[in-house]
Design brief:
By secondary structure, this protein is of the alpha/beta class. It is 33% helix and 21% strand. It is built from 12 helices and 12 strands. Helix 1 packs across helix 3. The protein is globular and about 55 Å long.
C-alpha cells in the first residue's frame, strides 16, 4: 500500500427494537453529526462518501437516495453506495483513498429490521431456484450450522450459552441487550432464544483519513494495516458449515496472522458462528473477543459489520487496544466475510 489510511472517528445510534416513530433519515442524522463533530469536519470537507443499506429492509427501490438528505448532497458530492453491510462501504472508501483521489471519506450504514419479519426477508439471499422456494429462514440455517458443530464435538449447548452470557455482559451503552438474561426456549434446535441475535434498528458511521491528515484529525488514529474480503460458495450443500475458509483466507491476506492481536470484534450473529470464526482465525483465550457485545448484544442489519470495525477502532483511539482484528459477514451461515486489521501508533 502506498498510503496509510486510518479510522479517525466512529459514532453509532443506540440499537432499539423499533424506531417506527423515526424515518431512516431521522435515525441517521444524529450519527452523521456526531462523527463529523469528533473531527471538527464539515460535510464540505469530506472528499468521498459511501453508504451501505438494503432496499429489501426499506421496502422500496433506491431507498438510499433518501438518506442523502441527512448527508447534504448540495453542493454536489462524490458519493457511492453498496447494497450490503457498511463494512463493504468502508472497503470501497478505503480503495478510493488508496488511489489518492481523496484524503478523507465518510462511511455510514443503517437498517430498520423492525417493520417486517427479518427471518423471512433474509431468505431472499438464497439460491432462487432450489433453496429460496423452500423458505428456510435465517435461524433454521444457523441451526443446521450449530448442529453440525455439535456433531463434530467442536462445541455443545452449555458452551454456546456461555458465549451468549459473556457477550451480553458488556457495558456498551448502545447495546440492545445487556445484563443477565434467561437463555430461553428453543427457536430451532439446538439454538435457543439466547443463541440468536436481537432484531433491532440502528445506524453507524466512521470517518477515514489518509496520512498526515489522519494525525491532524485524531490523537491516535486506528491505521488499517490490511483489509480483505472473500466469499464462500452460494450453494450450502457444497460447503463445510463447521469451517470458514473464506474468513481464514481474508485474514491471511489482511496480515492478521503476522503478529498477534489483542482484541477481535467478530460479526457473529449466532453463538455457534463465534465458534466457527474463532477456529478460522486461530484466536486464543488471551484475545478479548467482542468487548462491545457484538451482534448478540445489538444486530442492526447493514450496520452491525461496520460497527465491528468502528468498535475495534474506538478501542485503539482510547488506548484500550494496540492491534485489533475486525470482522464483518453477510449472507447465510457466514457466506461472505471481510477482515480488517487495525493498529495504533506505538505508545
Amino acid at each position: 500500500m502506498t498510503r496509510e489510511i486510518a479510522v479517525v472517528a466512529f459514532a453509532q445510534t443506540d440499537t432499539l427494537r423499533t424506531t417506527e416513530e423515526h424515518s431512516e433519515v431521522e435515525m441517521l442524522m444524529p450519527v452523521l453529526h456526531a462523527v463529523l463533530e469528533r473531527t471538527s469536519l464539515k460535510t464540505s470537507d469530506i472528499g468521498f462518501t459511501c453508504s451501505g443499506s438494503s432496499d429489501y429492509l426499506a421496502g422500496r427501490a433506491f431507498s438510499f437516495t433518501l438518506a442523502l438528505d441527512g448527508v447534504g448532497a448540495w453542493p454536489p458530492i462524490s458519493e457511492s453506495h453498496v447494497e450490503t453491510d457498511g463494512a463493504w462501504a468502508l472497503y470501497e472508501a478505503w480503495t478510493k483513498l488508496l488511489t489518492g483521489d481523496a484524503d478523507t471519506a465518510l462511511v455510514y450504514s443503517y437498517g430498520k429490521s423492525s417493520p417486517g419479519s427479518l427471518r423471512d426477508v433474509l431468505t431472499r439471499q438464497l439460491d432462487p431456484y432450489y433453496v429460496a422456494p423452500l423458505w428456510p429462514d435465517s435461524v433454521a440455517l444457523a441451526a443446521l450450522q450449530a448442529q453440525a458443530l455439535i456433531d463434530t464435538g467442536a462445541t455443545d449447548e452449555p458452551a454456546l450459552a456461555a458465549i451468549a452470557a459473556r457477550s451480553r455482559a458488556t457495558d456498551n451503552p448502545h447495546a440492545q441487550l445487556r445484563g443477565t438474561r434467561p437463555h430461553g426456549d428453543y427457536q430451532v434446535r439446538p439454538l435457543r432464544t439466547g443463541d440468536c441475535p436481537p432484531v433491532g434498528d440502528g445506524a453507524a458511521a466512521v470517518i477515514l483519513a489518509a496520512g498526515d491528515r489522519a494525525r491532524e484529525l485524531c490523537p491516535r488514529p486506528a491505521w488499517i494495516r490490511g483489509i480483505d474480503h472473500r466469499i464462500e460458495a452460494h450453494a450450502l450443500g457444497v460447503r463445510d458449515l463447521t469451517d470458514s475458509p473464506s474468513t481464514r483466507l481474508a485474514a491471511a491476506r489482511a496480515g492478521a496472522f503476522e503478529r498477534p492481536v489483542d482484541t477481535a470484534e467478530l460479526h457473529a450473529p449466532f453463538t455457534s458462528q463465534e465458534v466457527v470464526l474463532r477456529r478460522a482465525l486461530d484466536l486464543g483465550d488471551d484475545v478479548r473477543v467482542n468487548p462491545s457485545g457484538g451482534a448478540l448484544a445489538a444486530n442492526p442489519m447493514m450496520a452491525a459489520g461496520l460497527a465491528r470495525i468502528g468498535e475495534a477502532a474506538a478501542r485503539i483511539h482510547r488506548g484500550a487496544s494496540d492491534r485489533a482484528l475486525a470482522h464483518a459477514t453477510s449472507g447465510p451461515c457466514l457466506q461472505q466475510n471481510l477482515v480488517a486489521v487495525l493498529e495504533g501508533d506505538p505508545r
